[in-house]
Amino acid sequence: MALCVLYGVDDPSVVGGLLELARVDRERRKAKGGWNDAPFAPPMKEYAALESAARSIKTWQVAFIPVLLQTVDYIRALNSDDLFINARLTRQRRLTDDPQIQLQAVIYEAVLRNLVGGVDVMRKQLDHLAVVGQRRNVSVRVLPFSAGAQLGMGCGFSILSFADPGAMDVVYVQVPRQPLWREGGEGAAEHDELFEGIAQHALSESDSRTFIGSLSEGL
């Protein structure tokens, strides 16, 4: 507010937008402190903090079930450390504790066919996806093999939004051993466009549930 007065900025929409950015930044800083002791690599600690302050999440996954949608047994199959498991479950609670957060997940078919933890674990995971995808704040869609090659199939990524669409978007690109970050600007906009392009070729939510159910029954 002091800077706005100093520079003669009195447009309510501009002042309001700047105050919103300041509020979001405070939330992000507070959230970051809560993950300092989590058993994650530093980039993932940063991501978990940002995720906990985000208002909407778009995620495209080509290797694993989205973290926020993983079952306990699926998580344990990836890492049996109790602290790691509890940290992931803590992240998941946002979907139930905060109905305002919106999650849009597009999952490549190969992820659903990869038997992480074995047949029983994967069957329960698929059943869980079909159920959780019916929540009002969760959208689960599948990109089937029949969709053919698409841009963005080389690696998964997630887009976190905090205020107005695009204003403070952060993109986390899941490159092995060296994750990449894009915050705001053209980088975030390009990934949002990429996500929407992939989503256009994905099955609808209803067809995705049917597809997931058929995979579960076939195990």
Description:
This protein has 219 residues and is of the alpha/beta class. It has a single domain (11-218), classed as Endonuclease, Chain A. It contains 10 helices and 6 strands. The protein has helices spanning 2-6, 12-33, 42-53, 72-78, 82-92, 94-97, 109-113, 119-132, 185-200, 205-218, and strands at residues 56-61, 102-108, 138-143, 157-161, 170-173, 180-183. α2 (12-33) packs across α3. The relative contact order is 0.14.
How are the elements arranged and paired?
Blueprint: H1 2-6, H2 12-33, H3 42-53, E1 56-61, H4 72-78, H5 82-92, H6 94-97, E2 102-108, H7 109-113, H8 119-132, E3 138-143, E4 157-161, E5 170-173, E6 180-183, H9 185-200, H10 205-218
Parallel strand pairs: 1-2, 2-3
Antiparallel strand pairs: 1-4, 4-5, 5-6
Helix pairs in contact: 2-3, 8-10
The radius of gyration computed from the alpha-carbon positions, rounded to a whole number of angstroms, is 19 Å
- The rough form would be described as globular
Number of strands: 6
Strand order, largest beta sheet: 3-2-1-4-5-6
- Supply the helix-strand structural class: alpha/beta
- For the record, the CATH architecture stands as 2-Layer Sandwich
Q: What is the third-level CATH name, the topology?
A: Endonuclease, Chain A
**The first-level CATH class name:** Alpha Beta
Mean of residue pLDDT values: 87
Cα-to-Cα separation, first versus last residue: 60 Å
